[in-house]
């Protein structure tokens, strides 16, 4: 949580860049939520579990973006005489993001496993281990987020959190690969794409976490972080979900023949 305890000033451009980014992400979450609901009848019964997860993820994230957006608007006020924005309301609350991740990250990982429709014992073991690791990754990151940006505490908590991040990557890129042998080629390449999107977009979060250490201007650091998180969230949730839906459609077609064409 970036609790700004002293007076911060944002230029017009800085304030609006974050305002527009947050508003855009809210729209993307809302639109993908409606899309996932509408596509439901075209997805077979066996693929519904993964579809429900992706629908919940964008619903939860959409709700939190609304709260983050409101918090942003409440904590800065336009100073007409100066032509910039002054931090004058309650502190901008970034705890919403951590609550959001605590719920959506295990769901996203379960979605990636469920979309493959492996044997239940295999899926269960993967989902439990990925879920527990993700709770540790986020839970351990949070105390560091509260610590000062140049503190050792931030590095230590961030480092512990990263160990669990590496474990998740190990499970996805080593263990999961072993189970991909039985998947049809098109599904294999889509799962490959999902894993790469996951890797590249999830790296944004630890980078944004450590960034304030290297950007000394507090306002710039805040703006860069918020825009970084916003972009990562659009790719990691709606876009990731869209790829999962394409896999579900392919699997539905496989079961029901061509009549299930989109
Ligand atoms: C939709 C939200 C997603 C996919 C959030 C993902 C968040 C992470 C991968 C966070 C990772 C962190 C570290 C690896 C170290 C520093 C602390 C965190 C929590 C930012």
- The average pLDDT value, as a whole number, equals 92
CATH superfamily descriptor: Rhodopsin 7-helix transmembrane proteins
* Cα-based radius of gyration, to the nearest Å: 20 Å
Tell the overall outline: globular
CATH topology: Rhopdopsin 7-helix transmembrane proteins
Distance between the termini: 43 Å
CATH architecture descriptor text:
Up-down Bundle
> For this structure, what is the CATH class?
Mainly Alpha
Give me the number of helical elements.
7
Bound molecules: retinal
SSE sequence, one letter per element: EHHEEHHHHH
Low-confidence stretches: none
Q: Tell me the major beta sheet.
A: 3 strands, antiparallel
What is the percentage of strand-forming residues? Answer: under 5%
Instruction: Please give the number of β-strands.
Output: 3
Trace the largest sheet across and list its strands: 1-3-2
The total tally of domains equals 1
What does this structure look like?
The chain has 262 residues and is mainly α. The chain has a single domain (9-257), classed as Rhodopsin 7-helix transmembrane proteins (Rhopdopsin 7-helix transmembrane proteins, Up-down Bundle). It is built from seven helices and three strands. It has helices at residues 12-39, 48-75, 95-114, 120-146, 152-179, 185-210, 218-256; strands at residues 9-10, 76-79, 84-87. A three-stranded antiparallel β-sheet has the order 1-3-2. A hairpin with a 4-residue loop joins strand 2 and strand 3 (84-87). Helix 1 packs parallel to helix 7, helix 3 (95-114) packs antiparallel against helix 4 (120-146) and helix 4 runs antiparallel to helix 5 (152-179). The chain is globular, with a radius of gyration of 20 Å. It binds retinal. Residues 101, 104-105, 108, 137-138, 141, 158, 161-162, 165, 202, 205-206, 209, 233, 236-237 line the site of retinal.
